[in-house]
C-alpha cells in the first residue's frame, strides 16, 4: 500500500512539473492560424532569455526557416506554399548549432486569393500606414490615381533607384538575424539588396500591388541576392525587378530598365 501511495505521489509531482512546463511554454509562445485564409500565420514569442530561437514553416517537402526575436506583439509570416497542411515548429538553441523543438502547431490552410499572400505585412516586409515610407508611396501616386499598375510601379521604383545607395560596409558586417526596416532605409538613403527589395515590396503592397521579395542568384552578381517580382494586374503577369542593380547602373550613369529577364534570375526563396 505504501509503495502504491509513493508511486502515486511521484506521478503527481511529475505531472505537476510537466503541466507547469507546458503552461510556461504556452505563455511564451503561440502559433495562430486564425488568419491563414489571408495567407499568414501569426507567431508570438515573448521571453527575457538570451537564447537563439528559430521558426520553421513546413508544407510537404518544402520548408522555410526564420530567426525569431522576442516581441510583445504577434509577428506575421507568409504561407506562400499554396493550400494544404502546414506544420509550424519553434526551436530553441541548446549548444553550438543544436536546437530542440519547444512548441508546434499545424493546420489545413485554404487561401482564397493567392495574390493576397503578397500584399501582407510580414517579418521581412513589415509595414503599416504610419510608416514614412508608406506615406511617401501614397504621395508618389496620389495625384495619379488613373495611372496603370505598371506606371505606379515605375514611379515608386524610380524613386528608390534614384534615392537609395548601396551600403558596402553594412553588407560586410551584417548580423545573422538582420531584418530590414523600411523607414531606416529611407532615412539613411542607403541599404543592401535585402533593404531595397523590402522597401519596394512594402511601398507597392501598400498600394495594393502584389509584390514578392525573392532571394537567390542573379547573373548580375556573384553573391546571394534579393530582388522583387511584381504582379501587373492589367497585364496579368509577374515581372522581375531589381532595384539594387538598377541603382548601381543609375549611379554610374548607365542605362537601366524596370523589367529584367527572368532567365537571368534563379529563385531560392520567395516571401
The backbone outline, from C-alpha atoms, is globular
Helix content: 25-40%
Q: Determine the strand fraction and express it as a percent band.
A: 25-35%
Biggest sheet details: 4 strands, antiparallel
Order of helices and strands: HEEEEEEEHHEHHEHEEEHE
Structural class: alpha+beta
Mean of residue pLDDT values: 91
- Separate helix tally: 7
Spans where pLDDT lies below 50 across 5 or more residues: 1-26
Question: How do the strands and helices of this protein lay out in sequence?
Answer:
Blueprint: H1 2-28, E1 29-32, E2 40-45, E3 53-59, E4 62-68, E5 75-78, E6 84-93, E7 99-109, H2 132-142, H3 149-163, E8 165-166, H4 168-172, H5 182-188, E9 190-191, H6 193-206, E10 211-218, E11 225-232, E12 237-241, H7 243-251, E13 265-270
Parallel strand pairs: 8-9
Antiparallel strand pairs: 1-2, 2-5, 3-4, 3-6, 6-7, 10-11, 10-13, 11-12
Helix pairs in contact: 2-6, 3-6, 3-7, 5-6
What this model shows, in words?
It is a single chain. This protein has seven helices and 13 strands. The chain has 271 residues and is an alpha+beta fold. The longest helix has 27 residues, at 2-28. The chain folds into two domains: 29-112, Sandwich (Immunoglobulin-like); 132-270, C8orf32 fold (Roll). Helix 2 (132-142) packs across helix 6, helix 3 packs antiparallel against helix 6 and helix 5 packs across helix 6. The relative contact order is 0.11. Helices cover 32% and strands 30% of the residues.
Amino acid at each position: 500500500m505504501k509503495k502504491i501511495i509513493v508511486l502515486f505521489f511521484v506521478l503527481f509531482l511529475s505531472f505537476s512539473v510537466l503541466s507547469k512546463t507546458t503552461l510556461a511554454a504556452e505563455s511564451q509562445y503561440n502559433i495562430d492560424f486564425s488568419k491563414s485564409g489571408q495567407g499568414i500565420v501569426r507567431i508570438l514569442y515573448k521571453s527575457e532569455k538570451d537564447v537563439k530561437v528559430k521558426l520553421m514553416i513546413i508544407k510537404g517537402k518544402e520548408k522555410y526557416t526564420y530567426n525569431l526575436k522576442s516581441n510583445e506583439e504577434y509577428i506575421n509570416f507568409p504561407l506562400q506554399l499554396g493550400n494544404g497542411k502546414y506544420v509550424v515548429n519553434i526551436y530553441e538553441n541548446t549548444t553550438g548549432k543544436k536546437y530542440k523543438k519547444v512548441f508546434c502547431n499545424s493546420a489545413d490552410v485554404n487561401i482564397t486569393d493567392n495574390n493576397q499572400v503578397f500584399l501582407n505585412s510580414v517579418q521581412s516586409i513589415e509595414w503599416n500606414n504610419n510608416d514614412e515610407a508608406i506615406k511617401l508611396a501614397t504621395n508618389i501616386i496620389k495625384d495619379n490615381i488613373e495611372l496603370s499598375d505598371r506606371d505606379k510601379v515605375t514611379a515608386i521604383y524610380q524613386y528608390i533607384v534614384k534615392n537609395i545607395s548601396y551600403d558596402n560596409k553594412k553588407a560586410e558586417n551584417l548580423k545573422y538575424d538582420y531584418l530590414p526596416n523600411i523607414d531606416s532605409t529611407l532615412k539613411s538613403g542607403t541599404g543592401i539588396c535585402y533593404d531595397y527589395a523590402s522597401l519596394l515590396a512594402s511601398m507597392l503592397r501598400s498600394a495594393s500591388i502584389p509584390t514578392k521579395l525573392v532571394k537567390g542568384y542573379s547573373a548580375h552578381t556573384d553573391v546571394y541576392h534579393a530582388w522583387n517580382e511584381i504582379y501587373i494586374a492589367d497585364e496579368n503577369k509577374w515581372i522581375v525587378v531589381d532595384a539594387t542593380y538598377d541603382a548601381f547602373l543609375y549611379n554610374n550613369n548607365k542605362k537601366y530598365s524596370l523589367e529584367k529577364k527572368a532567365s537571368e534570375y534563379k529563385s531560392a526563396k520567395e516571401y
